[in-house]
Sequence to fold (138 residues):
Amino acid sequence: MVSPDKIIIADDHPLFRQALLATLTNKFTSATWFEAQTINELESLLPSNNDSDLLLLDLNIPGARGFSTLIYVRKHFPQIPVVIISAHDNQETINKAMAYGAAGFVPKSTPVDEIYSAITAVLSGEIWLPAAFMLKPY
Fold:
């Protein structure tokens, strides 16, 4: 398994972010974690952390406009895989996220062990989608 050095979590819900951090820091013990609550904070973090192994991105954080943040990150930091973590987990949203270059899509309702599996898969270079959602042509 790939052991990440740096992971960025961009999510404006403190409770979700802290729960995710508390769980994942126990699994990825050598990783350094960075947090952003807004798009401005994320855009400030990315240039100095462009060697991050992963970005966990909520689509609906303050400053976001649809998929603009995902498109921006994929264009300017293509070396950082992006996993969308979102409460909006309908087929259209998942398809668009994948079309815009996400390496995975994790609904916020996903159990923690499955989130860990998703992150591990993406860190290993795989694409990850929830089993209930089959990627359909765009």
Observations:
- The two ends are 31 Å apart (CA to CA).
- The chain has five helices and five strands.
- The helical segments are 14-27, 39-48, 68-76, 91-99, 112-123.
